Amino acid sequence: MNNSIGNAARLIGAGLRALLVLTLVCGVIYPLLVTGVAQGLFPGKAKGSEIKSGGQVVGSSLIGQTYNLPKKNPGDAEEAAAPDLKWFQPRPSNGLGSNTVNTQYSLILSGATNRSADNGAVNGVCPANAEEGTLCAQVYAAKAAVIKDNTTAGFKVKPSDVPADAVTSSGSGLDPDISPEYAKLQVHRVAERNHLDVKQVEKLVVDHTDGRILGFMGEPTVNVLELNIALKELAKA
Question: Which of 79, 94, 121, 224 has the most CB atoms in a 10 Å sphere around its CB?
Fold first, then answer.
């Protein structure tokens, strides 16, 4: 009996010592080591890839932002937000929503539309009169809005000019980048709204276009937040 109690005590003691050592190693030493290495080698990424403007953090290069006009009735949750057309616009964010649980903060909920690629299609083709609420109807509506918003007195947008990322949201709904084609499509409208020369705005897009990773991986992209910060500085100058 005494041997059984002694063995049990030794096992419990060994288990507690292992728990203490593993907690110290895995819960304290390892996180501090990884954090220190990350802060030393990749300080920007370790801090959330922050983007600053005027000495203040205005966002992250990893998370998209919307550029909308203030609502006429801020308390109306059903009122659709209208884009502020003096800024470059990001991809549609149909997967985004506001936090209805904690009303003190308006948090972003990441997610896609959960609609299949042929939602609303007939025989694999999206009809112009697609049922309201389907993905086909959303794409047609988004395409019409892009054409209308970006057509100016001296520049007419054709339906064939509208790239896919201008009318579809990303899987997360948080994509911070757009294609160079979509950015160039917005140049004339942005230049007109900010009283700038078109060539100046075109140069902004070129300067903020990131090429393929290692020259062959992925597609060229334009970070909308970084582009709009540069636009703000140009307009101010």
Answer: 224
Handedness of CA 172, 175, 181, 184 (dihedral sign): positive
Give 182 or 105, the one with higher predicted confidence: 182
With a CB cutoff of 8 Å and minimum separation 6, the contacts of 38 are: 45, 46
Q: Please, which residues have CB within 8 angstroms of residue 94's CB and are 6 or more apart in sequence? A: 112, 113, 138, 169, 173
Query: Domain of 84?
Result: 51-236
The better pLDDT of the pair 108, 217 is held by 217
Do 55 and 169 fall into the same domain?
yes
- Mean pLDDT, the chain, whole residue set: 86
Which of the 8 DSSP states describes residue 161?
A: G
pLDDT tens digit sequence for 32-59? 999 999 998 988 888 888 888 888 888 8
Question: What was the pLDDT predicted at 232?
Answer: 93
User: pTM of the prediction?
Assistant: 0.80
Structure tokens given for 115 = 């609609």
Distance CA 124, CA 129 (A): 14
Considering the domain architecture, whether residues 101 and 163 belong to the same structural domain is answered as yes
- Tokens encoding 66: 């919307």
153: which 2 tokens? 């007195």
